[in-house]
Design a protein that fits this description.
Layout lengths: L27 E8 L8 E10 L9 E6 L2 E7 L4 E7 L4 E9 L8 E9 L5 E6 L3 E3 L4 E8 L13 E5 L2 E6 L5 E6 L5 E9 L8 E2 L3 E6 L3 E9 L3 E10 L10 E6 L4 E7 L4 E7 H6 L4 E6 L8 E2 L3 E2 L2 E4 L7 E3 L3 E5 L25 E4 L5 E3 L1 E5 L3 E5 L7 E7 L7 E6 L4 E2 L4 E6 L5 E6 L4 E2 L5 E9 L10 E5 L2 E4 L2 E4 L7 E6 L8 E9 L2 E2 L3 E5 L1
Parallel strand pairs: 9-16, 26-33, 37-45
Antiparallel strand pairs: 1-2, 2-5, 3-4, 3-6, 6-7, 8-10, 10-13, 11-12, 11-14, 14-15, 14-16, 17-18, 18-21, 19-20, 19-22, 22-23, 22-24, 25-27, 27-31, 28-29, 28-32, 30-31, 32-33, 34-38, 35-36, 35-38, 38-42, 39-40, 39-43, 41-42, 43-44, 43-45
Length: about 525
């Protein structure tokens, strides 16, 4: 191959042309040929200039100068009427090749021009992705690779690379060593046809890849339900998140359901991954002991999900009286379905333990003081505990240390009487001071008889009465004072009330027995007086 040397031509091309003063026998024809034509950047091109006499017979000699425009490609000797060289062009475009024949003793000089097209290179773009399918909201990297490598001396494609879905432009990325990487995370769930287009430049044509079938799956979601007790309502909050690697924020609605009764407590839209409803204490009372769950509706980009169950336990004093008030030193029962994971039997008393089988109950009173309650029993369906004796009256929160059990809001009062049933005791005191004790129920006829007869009732929530006079017993239509109303003394939280029975109760039949302590009325107990 001839070396390429460049210099500026100082003689105008027109000065070398054959003029009218050149006789015919000295004239020549000058023709330039090339191969290939067109050529490509970086591809060697073979140029040959042919000098042929118009009328003479001798072979022309001398030299031929070749120019690319005005840039010299070199001076080459004419041998057997021709001169040749090989040149490489490193940029695309139309090249004007000029040839000047020097002439010799037999022939005049001559000039010829030739157009050499240098076409742009045609690359290929191969498109791939980081995964055949990803969840909605997960980062997906599209990788466009340009081939082949540019010929030596030719600049690589400048790009940029554009990524499309159909006619929609997804993004534009600069090339780095022939590769463009574009990360996207907002393609909707479904099948997508993605293409990559290399934007052309003066040396390279613009080309588009074959379509890439890209799958986007609906994102898996998780719904977590929590609850917070307020003064007059419980707030249920469901938090819905997409499972990694998705970082999308789910949209849609959440339905809160009492799964036992099948009752929908409310439905609301998600906002910033959370949905909340407030359920009044009156409505909550209807769901006491029932698991509550939250169901996320899902959508075109998200799979539906159902939360963990939470439970609002029912509450009553241990005697069975359902009330809005509970008292310090009162035995209280919580009932539900998943109150404790480890059932424990009735412990020996006293004192009562504050933890059984990993379960504890905490009472936070109106002064903000939290105290653990003594426990009689823990099981999945029931917990019996004693309200701490120094709890302050007013609004209080009962919290069970078991996941999924919603804290309860109650009111602590001085008294909240309840009577244990279905049995009571009759204490008979004879004239000689001897005593007999009988256990009676609604089916046991009670004879008043002679001597002194007391009705002994057992209950809870009574001992903190303002005075003994503040406690009365109602038997049928008779309102009777009590001889004793206070702690039973053997079992924590258990109270005892002694009532002197008048002879007028004889023949009263089956009647209700209730206690009133400082205006608060207990649940009834049925007894039968003959």
């Amino acid at each position: 191959m001839w070396s390429r040397w460049l210099w500026l031509v100082t003689i105008p091309f027109a000065a070398a042309a054959q003029g009218n003063d050149c006789p015919l026998e000295r004239q020549v024809s000058l023709v330039i040929q090339s191969g290939p034509a067109p050529s490509l950047p970086g591809q060697p091109v073979h140029f040959t200039a042919f000098v042929a006499p118009v009328a003479g017979t001798a072979d022309p000699t001398g030299t031929i100068q070749l120019f690319d425009g005005t840039n010299s490609l070199g001076t080459f000797p004419v041998v057997v009427g021709q001169a040749s060289t090989v040149e490489t062009f490193y940029s695309a475009g139309a090249r004007e090749i000029n040839a000047i024949y020097s002439g010799d003793f037999n022939y005049c000089g001559a000039y010829a021009a030739y157009g050499q097209p240098v076409d742009r290179l045609t690359p290929s773009v191969a498109l791939s992705s980081s995964a055949a399918a990803v969840p909605y909201g997960a980062p997906l990297t599209l990788i466009a690779k340009v081939t082949p490598d540019p010929p030596a001396g030719v600049a690589a494609p400048a790009g940029p690379m554009q990524f499309f879905e159909g006619t929609t432009l997804l993004g534009t990325v600069t090339l780095n060593n022939g590769t463009a990487m574009f990360t996207i995370s907002n393609l909707d769930a479904g099948s997508h046809q993605i293409t990559a287009t290399l934007v052309g430049d003066p040396n390279w044509y613009s080309v588009r890849s074959t379509p890439l079938a890209q799958g986007i799956n609906r994102a898996v979601t998780a719904t977590v339900l929590a609850a917070a007790a307020g003064a007059s309502q419980v707030t249920l909050t469901a938090t819905v998140t997409a499972a990694a690697p998705s970082t999308a924020v789910p949209a849609g609605s959440v339905q809160f359901t009492d799964t036992t009764a099948g009752t929908v407590l409310g439905t609301t839209a998600l906002a910033a991954s959370a949905a909340s409803i407030m359920v009044s204490n009156a409505a909550i009372a209807l769901t006491a002991g029932h698991p509550i769950s939250a169901t996320y509706s899902g959508g075109s980009n998200f799979i539906a999900s159902t939360s963990n169950a939470v439970e609002i336990p029912g509450v009553a004093n241990a005697a069975g009286a359902v009330s809005t008030n509970y008292a310090a030193d009162e035995i209280v029962s919580l009932f539900g379905t998943n109150l404790s994971l480890t059932p424990m039997p009735l412990p020996g008393v006293p004192p009562l333990p504050t933890t059984l089988g990993g379960t504890s109950v905490t009472i936070t009173d109106s002064a903000g003081t939290a105290r653990q309650a003594g426990l009689y029993l823990v099981s999945a369906q029931q917990i019996n505990f004693v309200v701490p004796s120094d709890s302050v009256t007013g609004p209080a929160t009962i919290t069970v240390a078991t996941a999924g059990v919603i804290p309860l809001r109650v009111n602590l009062a001085a008294v909240a009487p309840g009577i244990f049933g279905p049995s009571a005791q009759i204490l008979r005191v004879a004239a000689d001071g001897s005593q007999t004790l009988e256990t009676v129920t609604a089916s046991t006829p009670i004879a008043i008889g002679s001597g002194t007869v007391y009705l002994v009732l057992y209950g809870t929530g009574i001992r903190n009465r303002s005075s003994l006079a503040g406690v009365t017993a109602t038997i049928g239509t008779a309102s009777l004072p009590v001889a004793y109303a206070g702690a039973q003394g053997q079992f924590p939280g258990l109270d005892q009330v002694n009532v002197l029975l008048p002879a007028t109760l004889a023949g009263a039949g089956k009647v209700n027995v209730t206690l009133t302590a400082d205006g608060q009325v207990s649940n009834p107990l049925v007894l039968n007086f003959q």
